[in-house]
Amino acid sequence: MKIHVCGSRGSTPTPGRDFCRYGGHTSSIAISRDDRPDLLLDAGTGIRRVTRLLGDRPFEGSILLGHLHWDHTHGLPFFAAGDRPDARVDLYIPEQDGTVEDTLATFMAPPHFPIGPTDLHGNWRFLHLPEGTHRIEGYEVTAREVPHKGGRTFGYRISDGHVTVAYLSDHHPTSFGAGPEGYGPYHEAAVTLAREADLLIHDAQYLDDEWPTRSHFGHSTPGYAIGLAREAGARRLMMFHHDPARTDDDLDILATQWSKTEELNVITAMEGETIDVTVGG
Fold this sequence. Notes:
6 helices, 14 strands, globular
């Protein structure tokens, strides 16, 4: 399984020379078994990079939205490989009230945007996804609700039968209390998703020393991500959803620190990077 980091940033895009190496696009991960991505996790502005990965080919696959905040949806109308007559796109959102089309139209329709979701070209299906395990594009996908402020949020566990990737891009475990280190408990849904994953992609937006003043924003810390990876026996951890103020120089320092974590392989999400996920990480 290949993981293509198309957008690594959280909250809002961050253009500019200070954000070139780790990237300024918001959350989007593309998964492929060869060189053709067919399963996308979130549709932040980074989804535009998927079109480049496909060359002149249309997208034929599925998009799983973890939740509906702007930094995970703003790329949808700009996803050129999906907005063409020969494309096939199944778009899933966490199951909730109302049709998917009407839910998406709350931010993607006039007067907020010139077109609505049903105006996209190609064969689009808009689908609710309930919690549980599903077969999507030939992958086994487990969806579990995780705490995050401002709307129902899913974490995902994806397996191709050989390797497993867990994706908890936005996660606020202190909704369940302080936990052992003060960053939230290692609750059942998170541990289940991350259990012995070959790669865990996890929210690391706020640093541990920033937590006292930012804990109410609905995100997580590197300290929690490391603790969860250890608790669940994940074999590799990717720090993801970087704060928009975090520059390349800042992330260089953090990446060096994180890479020295004992008994755990920790990497830092970098836009444009492709990772071959193998058994054992």
